[in-house]
Amino acid sequence: MAEAIEDSGALEERVERWESLTAIPLTVATLAFLAGYAWPILDPDLDRGLVNLCETVVWVTWVMVFIDLAARVGLARHRWQFIRQHPLDVAVVVLPILRPLRLLRLVTLLTVLNRYAGSSMRGRVGMYLVASVTLIVFVAAVSILDVERGGDGPIQSFGDALWWAMTTITTVGYGDMYPVTTTGRFIAAGLMFAGIAVLGVVTASFASWLIERVAESDEQAEAATRRDIASLHHEIRELRQELGRSNSADD
């Protein structure tokens, strides 16, 4: 039993060491993937050699993510349980073979951010919120431009796509920009759900902060009340002692 616990601890240590070693390379690889994916879309007149370079970068990052997942599965004590507990990591490797799903690889960046996040829940939520909203808006804009440009819809430039992504994720939806392709509508649906989730996280974080402030205020009020009561007790004891001395003098 002791040996099993020791082996489990050693495996956990090896997984943590691996994640620590790969955090920075995976972050760089994911950002390189984002650049390689977005550059040809943002610049449709890009030289063919650079387009091929971007495509190579996209596939190299996929290989790196695959190696990372394979290593973590190999180091895990219960491999099938690890796979069941990390469905997004598996999806990042399996699904992005299809072009519309390649952007799932950006989930890796959020996983890496989790390794750097602070121990406090609010700090972690704040980091996730800022990073995820920035990524989601940019990625949604790039992906919608990729499928809508050249069609009959109003989204024909990155400015249009960025405006659409911002109004959609904030649940404003002016209606001046909208997707007309089937793939674009699926992207829009995903962005709508992301907007609702972000709004929920912001609301929950604000509510948590408000409750904490109220609790601190209550604690301070209780502490002040306890100090006042202690002071009154002290004054009463002094008065009793003074009365006792006064009665003794009268006797």
Description:
The protein has 251 residues and is an all-alpha fold. It has a domain at 1-109. The chain is built from 8 helices and no strands. Helix 1 crosses helix 5 (107-116).
Helix content bin: over 70%
Oligomer: single chain
Number of helices: 8
Span of the ends, CA to CA = 80 Å
Strand proportion, as a percent range, falls in under 5%
Outline the biggest β-sheet: none
Low-confidence stretches: 1-6
Average the pLDDT over all residues and give the rounded result. 76
Element pattern in H and E: HHHHHHHH
Strand pairing plus helix content: what structural class?
mainly alpha
Characteristic terms for this protein:
single chain; mainly alpha; 8 helices; elongated; disordered N terminus
Write the layout of secondary structure elements.
Layout: H1 2-42, H2 48-75, H3 79-85, H4 87-94, H5 107-116, H6 121-148, H7 158-169, H8 182-250
Helix pairs in contact: 1-2, 1-5, 1-6, 2-4, 6-7, 6-8
Quick structural gist:
The chain has 251 residues and is mainly alpha-helical. It has helices spanning 2-42, 48-75, 79-85, 87-94, 107-116, 121-148, 158-169, 182-250.
